Amino acid sequence: QVQLVESGGGLVQAGASLRLSCTASGGSFSNYAMGWFRQAPGNERKFVAVISRTGGTTSYAESVKGRFTISRDNAKSTVYLQMNSLKGDDTAVYYCAASGFATTRDSHYHYWGQGTQVTVSS
Length: 122
Description:
The chain is mostly beta strands. It has strands spanning 3-7, 10-13, 18-25, 33-39, 46-51, 58-60, 68-73, 78-83, 92-99, 111-112, 116-121. The strands form 2 sheets. Strands 2, 4, 5, 6, 9, 10 and 11 form a 7-stranded mixed beta sheet that branches. A hairpin with a 4-residue loop joins β7 (68-73) and β8. It is globular, with a radius of gyration of 13 Å.
């Protein structure tokens, strides 16, 4: 029904910025709240940020608050994650996901992208 494709990951130095993008197809993008999650080697997948269907409400994990910004462009069926002041602890595979409502719980997300690698060197 819905396919999600992330892009924008890469290798950067600590303190640098990256913007991740996730483009949806196969469904009505505006029907879904969109979330970002990340998974580091040996760790479980963890919540990063979520944005409501119209973009009016956002929520962030405490570890990224003040550094990351989630946004969406419904006309382009795309959600973004602007990541500033990157740290080594941000190194992970980043996934976007779609939910019927805004939530921090990954079990409530029904559609997932393939992930994009972010590596922060120090």
